[in-house]
Fold:
Amino acid sequence: MSSSCPEHGPHVVMLSEYNNEFIDVNTQLRDLLKGYVINNDKKDLIIMMDGSDWGNTWSNRIHCEGLIALGERSLPIRIFTPMILDWSGAKFSKSLYMMLDDYKYINQAFNDYRIFKSEYSYSGLNIIWEIACDWISEPKKFFRNYSIDYFDLFFKNIERNLI
Structure:
């Protein structure tokens, strides 16, 4: 792979299974590459599951048109899940807000898997699984978004034996 950086000049990386080179691509290219690899994996039926923020225009303009430009004749199956939102209605994004401590108001188990595992063990993962299964069994629940506060309240209600 070769590229040219305006600051550092030309750069070439030889990719092989034996080298230690690392290529970090932007989100758009990573999504397109993932779709291309999945589409060409003839061993398994693979479904791409993404949050609803990856749907609509993104899915059409970046993913589908990109694969078609690469010569693909079929597209992988994509399912878009409900999006988890913060208190303001914005996408819950740990990497962005953790640095700013914007989520210090919520149960830290939802910010750190080690805390989640310590507080809820594997039963917590089972609870999340049951919530997701409920979305599937009642499609009206699958086609909406949920706040992180919803999950916090759900877990608190379980702890109080209200559910």
In short: The longest strand covers residues 47-51. The chain has a mean pLDDT of 82.
